[in-house]
Structure formats: structure tokens, C-alpha cells
Design a protein that fits this description.
With 600 residues, the chain is of the alpha+beta class. The chain has helices spanning 9-20, 23-74, 77-88, 92-107, 148-156, 206-212, 255-270, 298-348, 364-404, 408-424, 428-445, 454-471, 497-507, 541-548, 557-574; strands spanning 113-120, 125-129, 162-171, 176-185, 197-204, 224-229, 235-237, 277-284, 289-296, 451-453, 476-482, 490-492, 515-524, 527-534, 579-585, 589-597. Among the domains are: 75-209, 2-Layer Sandwich (Beta-Lactamase), CATH 3.30.450.20; 216-296, Beta-Lactamase, CATH 3.30.450; 474-597, Histidine kinase-like ATPase, C-terminal domain (Heat Shock Protein 90, 2-Layer Sandwich). The strands form four sheets. Strands 2-1-5-4-3 form a five-stranded antiparallel β-sheet. The longest helix has 52 residues, at 23-74.
Length: 600
């Protein structure tokens, strides 16, 4: 290609440098201080306001998560029932204990919750907290600014969530705790107007510190600090807890007056002149709280002046050095760029084998571009090959799927025909076997990943075991024990059969003694515990450890593929809530314990 009016990159670089070499020195000398100081001030203000806004958003998110906890309590049917019993004086001691156990379970689901308190409409208080060494229903309330009646009246009077700002809570283990509280009246959805009590969740002030302060501030070594002021003008989060609750401003005052009050507060606290301080305020409209940052600008101005002097000195030195290096560097740069451009042009013509030759004299940036370009070509070539292979594999899989496809209706009709043939011959054992097989196939093929009741899964399993007994000529017997409490619970289909099959096919193989298979299902707290046990030949200890660690050898595909499949399905369905434990002794038998969540 011919470009008559164009010049080379090297020529442009040299001209540009010569035209601008003297201007930066003059510009830096006369205008850098002014521009940098204004930019720094503007950037600091924008960054600070953005940080305060992010802190405010984080605060809202955190509080919403705690309000969710509160919601779980005040809408819980069990809580409503227990509070009703307490109000009516029924089983007071038992109801209190049950309610405390419930509150204890909720308390540990979220960090920073120090206490959960329920006050009934009859004035009874039940609490569970971390702030007392013994069970005590009045840990923080004696120090609260409102009496129990005032607190109850305020919360029970409407259906909104009330937030009470930070106050001194209690001393525990030689440490003072400051708490803020969120509260809501208990709601009985059977009678929305019924007044039966309120719930208060008490949260450590350290949550606010984590969200808005993040780390302690030393006025001598840092330039600023964050703190929070509530709708009453009181400090509710601050690095010095002794100042929590101090009123520092009129919350209804205009922003400028509030900023001045915050400057006075920090100036007295840090003993720094107000003219060195800058204050930034972000208003959280949902909470009517001010999130405040006060910054010491004196250190920044001092650093800025020092930096200006350094910049001028470095600029003068750099100018002299740069003039002598420009031509030499531009030659190296242009030479390296030309090599990259040449390789790109070759690729654009369809030659994917083209590569940029890496040379030691290449600048790091150009070398990086060249390496990435070469790597991109390798990956592109590999991707094209993989795409081709993937297309071939997909086509092969589709062909195999079509070849393996069986019409279920044809299969059922065929089995039904054989069944009637057996009945005509009065061979009812064969008829029963065929009916069981048809039931098994229909159950397994239809919605194989669906959830069914435990009783349905067990009925299907009985049919399966019946067929195995017929096949093996009743060489084993089985015992099935299922607790009626779990028969209506839901489980995924076909999660028991692989373990049962493993016992029948592999566990009893080669043994002459009586073969016994035991299956037991029972509730265990919020889980269903399933035990499948046989008196077969057992499994080697090494293989047991591998199965418990979910390690399956490729050589085991024939003998343990069913177990591998169902164990993988269990963890896919239930995540880490599921549990599978295999215990086995060679020559004595194997026991599989399965634990899955109870679901209705």
C-alpha cells in the first residue's frame, strides 16, 4: 500500500516530543499547584461522598437482612402459639423454655445479634442473649431510655418496624456493650388485629462500625474519621464508645448548620483547628441518619506542596534525559511495532501459522502484545479444532440416542401381551413378575427426577426386591422398617435402589449362609435417616474410604456405577445437607447410612 502524504511513527514521535519538550516545564511551574490542589479537593470530595453513599447502601442492606430475621420471628406460627399460651397462663414454664430454644436457634444465624427479646401483651418478658452468664430476661432493658410499658406501647401501636438508636446496653466480662434495636409487633395471621406481644432484636453497635468506620482512626496518623448521627442528633456509631449517645446537633437544622456542629465536635475531640478540617455529610433518607466524614486537610496540603517541588525537579531532569533517549527508544519501538503489524497482516490473509518473532530488544509492552497475539492464534486454532470435534461428537451422540430410543408404549403393550399369555397358561408367578416389572419400568421412566412420597418409593422398592427374589430363587430375605411419621415426606425417586442392588448383586455373591437385607427409615430431627444393611461379604477398607471420599475408580464402573451415580445425585439434589456414610467389615457385611433433609 502507498501512502504518499504519511510519515513514519518514529518521525511523528520525534516531532511531537520536540514541539512539547519545553511546555510541560512552564506549565508545571506556574499552574500545577493550582490544578493539582483543585483536582485533589474535587476528587477527595467525590470519593468521600461516594464512599459515604456506599456505606449508607451497605447499612440498608445489613439492616434489611436483620429485618428478615425479625420477620421470621414475629410471623412464626409457633411463636404466636407460645405467646398466646403465656398470655393465657398455660404451661408457662414449658412455653418459656420452648420459646427460648427457638430464640437461641435464631440468634446464632446472624453475626452481631446480642439478644432477642419477646414481651407479651400481659407484660411477661422472655429473652435469649449473649450478654449474661446465666438465663436473664432483663439484660439490657434496665438501661434502656424507655420503660417496658413505653417500649411495648410504641412498637405494638402499628405494623411498622421500629429502629431504636444506639444506647448503652450492659457490661459483660468487664466489657461495655452498646446496642441498637429493631422491633415489631407479633402478627397472628388468623387474627391480624389481635395484640399478643412484640419482638425486639438487639444488635451490637460494632455492626455500624464495621459498615461505616471499618477501622479505628488515629488523628495523628490518619486524615479522617466516619461516624453516624441519628434523627435526634445523637451519635450512634463512633470510634470512642464513651461518646455514643452524645447530642451533637439539631437533626432538623439545615445541612450547613449540621456540618458546622460536626466540625465543632471533631475539633474538640481531636484538638485540631477547624480551618484544617473538611466535613462531608450523606443523609440516609430511609433512616433519617447522617453518615459523616471529617477529614484533616492540613496533611494533604503539606504533602501537595512537597510533591510540587519534587515534580519540578524531576521534570527538569527528565527533560534532559528524555531528549537524548527519544531517538534511540523510538527506533526500538517502531522496529518492534512493524514486526507485529507484519504478522497481523499475514493473519488477515488467512495464514494462521504466522507468528511474531520475539526479540530481546523488544520493549516489554510490545513483547507482551506479541506474546498475547501468538497465544491468541494458538487458542484460536485449538478452538476451531475443538469446535469441529464437538460437532462430530454431538452428531454421534444424536445418532446413538436415536438408535437407543425405545417407545415406552410399545414396551408396556408387549409386557401386557406376555402377561395375558401367562394368565392363559395359568402361570400366575410369571404374571405377577411381569406386572411388577411393568410397574418398575413405568415408575422409573416417568419423571425420573421427580419427588415422591416415601411410601410410594418404598412400594416401588418392594416390587424391585420381589423381582430380585424371583430371579435369585428366594436365596435372600429382607426386612423393611419405616417409621409412619416420615411416610408422607418427599424424597427424590430411585435413590434407594442402587444401594439395595449393590447388596443383592455384589454383597451376597459367593456366600452360602442365609442372606439377610435390612432397610430402615426413621426421622432424625429435621432429617430422614436411611440405613441399608446386609450380612454379605463386605468391602475392602481402602474402597470404603474412597467411596466415602466420593472417589470412584474407572475399573469399578461395572460394580459401583449405580452407587457413584446415586451419591452424585444426592449431593446435587440436597447439596452439603445430604450425607452418605459406608461402613463395612470384610466377611461380615456392609452398612450404608444416608441422611437427607425432611421435606413435606
Amino acid at each position: 500500500m502507498h501512502h504518499a502524504n504519511k510519515v513514519s511513527l518514529q518521525t511523528k514521535l520525534i516531532r511531537l516530543f520536540l514541539m512539547t519538550s519545553a511546555i510541560p516545564i512552564l506549565f508545571i511551574s506556574f499552574f500545577s499547584y493550582y490544578n493539582i490542589s483543585n483536582t485533589l479537593k474535587k476528587n477527595t470530595e467525590e470519593l468521600t461522598i461516594n464512599n459515604l453513599e456506599q456505606a449508607s447502601n451497605s447499612l440498608n442492606i445489613w439492616l434489611e437482612s436483620y429485618e428478615d430475621i425479625l420477620y421470621q420471628i414475629y410471623t412464626d406460627d409457633n411463636v404466636v402459639t407460645l405467646v398466646d399460651k403465656l398470655n393465657q397462663g398455660e404451661d408457662v414454664a414449658v412455653s418459656k423454655n420452648q420459646l427460648r430454644r427457638f430464640l437461641r436457634g435464631i440468634l446464632y444465624t446472624k453475626d452481631y445479634i446480642r439478644s432477642i427479646t419477646v414481651i407479651t401483651s400481659e407484660g411477661m418478658m422472655i429473652a435469649y442473649d449473649q450478654l449474661t452468664a446465666v438465663s436473664n430476661d432483663k439484660s439490657w432493658t434496665p438501661h434502656f431510655s424507655l420503660s417496658q410499658n413505653e417500649l411495648y406501647s410504641k412498637v405494638a401501636g402499628d405494623n411498622s418496624t421500629h429502629i431504636f438508636p444506639t444506647e448503652y446496653g450492659v457490661s459483660f466480662a468487664n466489657k461495655d456493650y452498646y446496642l441498637f434495636h429493631i422491633a415489631h409487633r407479633i402478627i397472628d395471621y388468623k387474627d391480624l388485629n389481635k395484640e399478643n406481644g412484640i419482638v425486639i432484636v438487639s444488635i451490637d453497635e460494632k455492626l455500624l462500625s464495621k459498615v461505616c468506620i471499618e477501622k479505628e482512626i488515629s488523628y495523628k496518623n490518619h486524615s479522617g474519621i466516619n461516624f453516624i448521627v441519628d434523627e435526634n442528633g445523637k451519635v450512634i456509631s463512633y470510634s470512642d464508645q464513651e461518646r455514643l449517645g452524645d447530642k451533637v446537633t439539631d437533626a432538623e437544622a439545615p445541612l450547613q448548620e449540621r456540618q458546622e456542629a460536626y466540625l465543632d465536635f471533631i475539633s474538640k475531640e481531636a484538638k485540631i483547628k477547624k480551618e484544617y478540617l473538611s466535613v462531608y455529610v450523606y443523609r440516609n433518607e430511609e433512616l433519617s441518619w447522617d453518615i459523616v466524614n471529617v477529614t484533616n486537610q492540613w496533611a494533604a496540603i503539606r504533602k501537595l506542596s512537597l510533591q510540587q517541588e519534587i515534580v519540578i525537579l524531576v521534570s527538569m531532569t527528565s527533560l534532559l534525559v528524555a531528549i537524548s533517549l527519544t531517538v534511540w527508544l523510538s527506533r526500538r519501538l517502531v522496529s518492534s511495532v512493524k514486526k507485529v503489524v507484519a504478522a497481523m497482516y499475514a493473519v488477515s490473509t488467512g495464514n494462521l501459522e504466522a507468528k511474531v518473532v520475539i526479540e530481546k530488544k523488544m520493549p516489554i509492552e510490545i513483547e507482551f502484545i506479541a506474546l498475547q497475539f501468538n497465544d491468541m492464534l494458538i487458542k484460536l486454532d485449538g478452538a476451531m479444532k475443538k469446535e469441529k470435534e464437538a460437532g462430530e461428537r454431538q452428531l454421534e451422540a444424536e445418532i446413538k440416542a436415536l438408535e437407543a430410543q425405545i417407545n415406552p408404549h410399545f414396551l408396556y403393550n408387549t409386557l401386557d401381551t406376555i402377561n395375558w399369555m401367562a394368565i392363559d397358561k395359568e402361570n400366575y408367578d410369571i404374571s405377577n413378575a411381569i406386572n411388577s416389572l411393568a410397574t418398575i419400568l413405568r415408575y422409573a421412566i416417568t419423571n425420573s427426577n421427580a419427588m415422591v412420597e416415601v411410601r410410594q418409593e418404598l412400594e416401588w422398592l418392594k416390587n424391585y426386591i420381589y423381582l430380585q427374589q424371583i430371579r435369585l430363587k428366594n436365596t435372600f430375605r429382607y426386612e423393611l422398617d419405616a417409621d409412619p411419621e416420615i411416610l408422607n415426606c418427599k424424597i427424590h425417586k430411585l435413590i434407594l435402589q442402587p444401594f439395595v442392588e449393590n447388596s443383592i448383586i455384589h454383597g451376597f455373591e459367593g456366600l452360602t449362609r442365609e442372606h439377610i437385607l435390612g432397610i430402615k427409615l426413621e426421622p432424625q430431627n429435621e432429617f430422614i435417616r436411611i440405613i441399608i444393611k446386609d450380612n454379605g461379604k463386605g468391602i475392602e477398607a481402602v474402597r470404603v474410604d474412597e467411596i466415602n471420599s466420593r472417589v470412584f475408580r474407572s475399573s469399578d464402573r461395572g460394580s459401583h456405577i449405580g452407587m457413584e451415580n446415586v451419591i452424585s445425585r444426592l449431593y446435587m439434589y440436597y447439596g452439603e445437607e445430604a450425607g452418605v456414610q459406608v461402613n463395612s467389615v470384610l466377611g461380615e457385611g456392609t452398612e450404608v447410612i444416608i441422611l437427607i433433609p425432611r421435606r413435606i
